[in-house]
Amino acid sequence: MISRDDIKNAFLFSTLPDELVDRIISIAKPRSYEEGEVIFGEGGQSGSFYLVRSGTILIEQEMTRHMTVTVATLNAGECFGYSSLMEEVSFSTTALSSEASEVITIDGKALLDMMEKDHTLGYLIHKQMVHMMAGRLQRRTEQFLRALSTHPEIHELEK
């Protein structure tokens, strides 16, 4: 069973009033994943949106055929699968469970439909999403700059 607290524990839904949370619960299902189990794969169809209830989820991206990089590590209260909230978009990453994990799966199309019909719901979710994405973009920029600063040729440019 999914509780209001399970949904509100996610930053994305933390500002929603109970009646809107109840509507989200109606399109959500709990799901368990074992260690190493793939939740979705890069290039796959994005039908669901996910909330981590417990455990740890890795978001990975393939750099080459032989190299995969973990781009995010998600814990309880964090969300993933944002592609499901955009029309006709496939996943650009792979999500897998790094330990036994409980995840709440939300029907992405149903949530998107709710957001389109109820502009208050859509606004509240998108407002939180902008804050979340801005934080992620800032972290990625910092990671990129740190990686760039160690590049051997970067110091040649300073001369």
Topology:
Blueprint: H1 4-8, H2 18-25, E1 28-33, E2 38-40, E3 48-54, E4 57-64, E5 67-74, E6 79-80, E7 94-97, E8 101-107, H3 108-117, H4 119-149, H5 154-157
Describe the protein's architecture and organization.
The chain is α+β, with helices and mostly antiparallel strands and 159 residues long. The protein has one domain (4-152): Sandwich (Jelly Rolls). It has 5 helices and 8 strands. The strands form 2 sheets. A 4-stranded antiparallel beta sheet has the order 1-8-3-6. Helix 3 (108-117) crosses helix 4. The model has no long low-confidence stretch (mean pLDDT 91).
Short description:
The protein is 36% helix and 28% strand.
Shape: globular
The CATH homology group name: Jelly Rolls
Biggest sheet architecture: 4 strands, antiparallel
Please identify the structural class as seen in this structure: alpha+beta
Beta-strand residue percentage = 25-35%
**Separate helix tally:** 5
What is the alpha-carbon Rg in Å? 18 Å
- Number of E strands: 8
- Report the order of strands and helices: HHEEEEEEEEHHH
Question: What number of domains?
Answer: 1
CATH topology: Jelly Rolls
Examine the secondary-structure arrangement and name the CATH architecture.
Sandwich
Helix content: 25-40%
Span between N and C termini? 62 Å
Low-confidence stretches: none
Query: What is the CATH class designation?
Result: Mainly Beta
On the 0 to 100 scale, the average pLDDT is 91
Strands of the largest sheet, in order across it? 1-8-3-6
